[in-house]
DNA sequence: CTGAAAGCGCTTACAG
DNA sequence: CTGAAAGCGCTTACAG
């Protein structure tokens, strides 16, 4: 900017005015400045500008994996909202590691992002206290924060899993296997709870032999299904706790003809005729980002918790009686 | 930092030294400073720091859609490389819009990112000239840049499509339909070229009636297949130009029993038994980011162009003679 | 309509 | 081992 001022023969402040399209600049002067800008290929340094103004017009997004279809859908929605507010998005993957989550969050804070949308991997978020106090917006998505009062957007995991399990029960299944993530993960624990609720409501016993937590790979799913098939009273249906578990189960099923319903919709689930309990990552992202920008716009209400509904989509894999 | 210095009763510079873990600070002083930092919840402002040092330890990534599985895989790979180099990633979606691409790129430049990985939507990248001259690293991925000499990582689209089409031909197909994106998109044009090459090499005529460009939605695919089925000499096989076209074609096929092979692998393609020509988005991202950080480390060689191979994965949908 | 001075939060280069 | 001064590239607040 100094160089531009020199070349145009004006003061720094005048260049600043032209760049910011502030009124009250002689048109002829403005033209001279713009020519100099063009000639020098000058681009304003946003970092320097924002050092004064306080805001960085950027937000940080921490998700489990930017490459995962569910979270990348969420990202897309956050991006859209951010863009509408003139904000850029730093995004990073925690990989379900609390240490990495903290690193990322603090790196974003050090860049002085205006706000943060976080899918928490860890349980402890007290370290965000100073940021919150300093006016940074923080919204947790998909899972609640550990020990920090902040806006949160969740999905009705329990209700969805309950509905999916009840759906299988309504077709006459009494032995329903559960394949899903470790209950150390909030959403998995909630869904397992929904599964148990549906069983209880139907007067069915909860049988730990039918529960495979951590069975989200093909190998693990196969092992679990092999074990369960060998039971005296094997399952006739499966409820899978997330998209990865569903695909793993489908791969592992082989010739077994169990009914199946799964949590999470995925792109060609319709082609596979898989019945799912769908959650909406785009709506999740929209809602979380909406909350964040409302805070940044000055909303000072108490922290909110929003719970989004799920939707059962019957496609054939679940709608059959026990073989 | 000023507040910390005040509270600890030292000069600004001493706080700076402690924060940067520079040697030569009295341990007792350091402890006092660290206490003040803790008490105040102080976090160094990276933006201010980098204003002096020049580097921002961040890069920008422009892809077509952060929510698309192919590009989000690329993102994940770029993130991993960036992380290894201590860099954060701004990411944004161009939505195949050259104007939006330019906006994003310039917004990243204004934030003074150290480098850029761009999947170009537009044809003109001369506007990046000043940045390149100023030492910013720029790598184009998936598609070549318009009119700027910069590192580029591509996929062997032509060779892949040629191999996929030849695969269908090897099973006796002579009438092979093409469903894909508009040839205005570089990768689509290249793949169409590969399809034509395979036909020519087999002595088969190129029939425009069998080519549906823009057929990447279920409706468009259905319309195209309806039209082609009604031909006097209908196709017996389909080659789809990308993942979306493959899924659209599968949805549109209905009772028609065409052989099918498609460009792009997708998550449960194995469950659907779909034969694909797979490209590797993770490798694409790794390679592009690797090139970028090599530049940032001082590599001054002439711009490179790297072309990555594809891999044909037979899964059943293509391996059958004409009905 | 235009500009000189001070300052955003930090580091660099130098002095003690 | 510690600090006062200048400056990174910009804006704010004020004066002319």
TrEMBL record, chains A, B:
Q: Which Pfam families match?
A: LacI, Peripla_BP_3
- What are the alphabetically sorted keywords of the record? DNA-binding, Transcription, Transcription regulation
Which SMART domains does UniProt cross-reference here? Answer: HTH_LACI
One of the entry's Gene Ontology molecular-function terms is: transcription cis-regulatory region binding
Per its UniProt entry, which superkingdom is the organism in? Bacteria
**Stored PROSITE patterns:** HTH_LACI_2 (PS50932)
Q: What CDD domains does its record include?
A: HTH_LacI (cd01392), PBP1_LacI_sugar_binding-like (cd06267)
Residue span(s) of domain HTH lacI-type: 1-53
Name used for this protein in its record = LacI family transcriptional regulator
User: To which species is this protein native?
Assistant: Bailinhaonella thermotolerans
């Amino acid at each position: 900017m100094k160089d531009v001022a020199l070349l145009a023969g004006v003061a720094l402040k005048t260049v600043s005015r032209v760049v910011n399209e502030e009124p009250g600049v002689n048109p002829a002067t403005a033209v001279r400045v713009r020519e100099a800008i063009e000639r020098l290929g000058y681009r304003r340094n946003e970092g320097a500008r924002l050092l004064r103004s306080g805001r960085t017009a950027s937000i940080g997004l921490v998700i489990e994996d930017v490459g995962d279809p569910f979270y990348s859908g969420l990202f897309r929605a956050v991006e859209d909202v951010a863009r509408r507010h003139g904000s850029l998005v730093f995004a990073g993957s925690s990989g379900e590691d609390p240490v990495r989550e903290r690193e990322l969050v603090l790196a974003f804070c050090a860049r002085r992002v205006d706000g943060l949308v976080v899918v928490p991997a860890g349980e402890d978020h007290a370290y965000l206290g100073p940021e919150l106090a300093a006016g940074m917006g923080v919204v947790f998505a998909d899972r609640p924060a550990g020990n920090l009062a902040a806006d949160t957007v969740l999905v009705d995991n329990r209700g969805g899993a309950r509905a999916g399990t009840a759906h299988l029960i309504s077709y006459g299944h009494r032995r329903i296997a559960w394949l899903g993530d470790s209950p150390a993960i909030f959403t998995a624990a909630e869904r397992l709870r929904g599964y148990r609720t549906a069983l209880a409501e139907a007067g069915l016993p909860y049988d730990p032999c039918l529960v495979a937590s951590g069975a989200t790979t093909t190998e693990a799913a196969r092992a679990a299904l092999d074990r369960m098939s060998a039971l005296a009273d094997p399952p006739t249906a499966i409820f899978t706790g997330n998209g990865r578990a569903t695909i793993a189960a489908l791969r592992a099923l082989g010739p077994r003809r169990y009914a199946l319903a799964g949590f999470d919709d995925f792109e060609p689930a319709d082609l596979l005729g898989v019945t799912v309990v769908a959650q909406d990552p785009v709506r999740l992202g929209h809602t979380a980002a909406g909350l964040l920008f409302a805070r940044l716009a000055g909303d000072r209400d108490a922290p909110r918790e929003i719970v989004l509904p799920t939707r059962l989509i019957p496609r054939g894999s679940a709608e059959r009686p026990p073989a």
